Amino acid sequence: MTPPVLRRLAAVGLLVTAFDVAVLAALRVGAGLPPALADALAVLSAALVSRRVHRRFTFADEPRVRWVEEPGVFVRVTLLAAAVDVAVLSVLADVRDTSSLGGLLPVKAVSLATAAAVRALGYRAALQPIIRAAQRGTSASAAAAGRVRLSIVVPTFREESRIASTVARLRAAGAEQVLVLPENRGKGAAVRAGMLAANGRTIVFTDADLAYPPEQIARVVAVVEAGADVVIGSRRHVDTTTLVRARRLREVTGRLFNLLTFVVLLGQYRDTQCGLKGFRRDAARLLFSRTRIDGFAFDVEVLHLAERYRLTLREVPVELANTSESSVRVGRDSLRMLWDVFRIRRLAARGAYGPDGLADEAPN
Predict the structure, then answer these.
(1) Cα–Cα dist 328/297, whole Å
(2) What is the C-alpha separation between 297 and 332, in angstroms, rounded?
(3) Tell me: the pLDDT tens digits for 13-49?
(4) Distance (Å, whole) CA 241 – CA 21
């Protein structure tokens, strides 16, 4: 069994850092080279070792380490981080004697930390357009299997007052079935159960309050049938129409949560939590058979898996009619969502989601 990605990356990182510091010490303390020159040679030597070791040992299907397969990205980010490393060390060397190991190591520690932050941001910025370009393509798979054209999944909790009218409106839109779990395990768990039980060639989930009118489902289905594996509604899309605004606190909380999703996601999604999303059946089975999050952050997990498995994805505008009723409790649920975002990151780092892609899903 291959070791988890997080431990592998940590081991490689420590190895490369030790190599960097050792070369710097040999050139600066041992050979007496100027600080800037010694650091530049050390950093560039360590960068070459880093890429070689990462290409051999890093989990290549982890989206956040795809830079090892992008030479242009590696060169640009490495040169930027090296320049920052050298600049910081040079500035600090002007105020601290670095001719001894005791004086050199604290200075190098600061320059390493600064360069590491630049490197992380640089790789993310460089990989975003690569991820987004791949998502804009069309699915390479054959038409999805399924007994009916469309299934609609509706996660519900304490919706007795309106679920009957919701079901009636959705059936008029052509839904095959609505599956409701007998107990509340969270929205993510409900959507997962519905997605895996559905038989439509396209499967859409939407909220029980029909904040997104059923007529919009046809738009999502059309985009899926045109070749997208995943289609997500976006309340931030320039063409979105908002008929009734949500409460200000929920809007602010939602925007802040979207900003925090950079912990998990590489793509620049304007809205991860929109309650209208559609999937090819094979893509739905791939994604939801691997999801672990039962709460409201399940959308982020689904998008992370779509990136990991390199599925095509489109964002579409929605017509939004927010209602005052909601099962979301901003304070409690926001904290749980934040916790779940970091849980997704940990699961990915441990290799819990695996490298498999859409080609591994047998139609049935």
Answers:
(1) 12
(2) 13
(3) 888 999 999 999 999 999 999 999 999 999 999 988 8
(4) 56
Within 8 A by CB and 6+ apart from 198, the residues are 151, 153, 176, 177, 179, 281, 284
**Residue predicted with more confidence, 259 or 193:** 193
Beta bridge mates, 153: 205
Asked whether 271 and 235 are in contact (CB, 8 A), the reply is yes
Q: Please name every residue paired with 314 in a beta bridge, in sequence order, or none if there are none.
A: 231
Least confident range from 119-123, 186-190, 233-237: namely 233-237
Q: What is the mean pLDDT of the chain?
A: 80
**Cβ within 8 Å of residue 105, ≥6 positions away:** 21
Neighbours of 183 (CB within 10 A): 7
Backbone angles phi, psi at 321, to 5 degrees: -125, 85
- Coil, strand, or helix at residue 289? coil
* Rounded to 5°, angle at Cα 167 from 161 and 169: 105
**Rg for the chain (alpha carbons), in Å?**
24
From 327, 322, 329, select the one nearest 210 (Cα to Cα): 322
Rounded to whole angstroms, the Cα distance separating 341 from 303 reads 12
Measured in degrees and rounded to the nearest 5, phi and psi for residue 138 equal -110, 155
Rounded Cα gap, residues 50 and 105, in angstroms: 20
Query: Can you tell me the distance from the alpha carbon of 311 to that of 224, in angstroms, rounded to the nearest whole number?
Result: 12
State the Cα–Cα distance between residues 29 and 40, nearest whole angstrom: 15
The CA distance from 81 to 119, in Å, is 6
The CA angle 140-141-142, to the nearest 5 degrees, is 125
For residue 92, give every residue at least 6 positions away whose Cβ sits within 8 Å of its Cβ, in sequence order, or none.
Answer: 98, 107, 110, 111
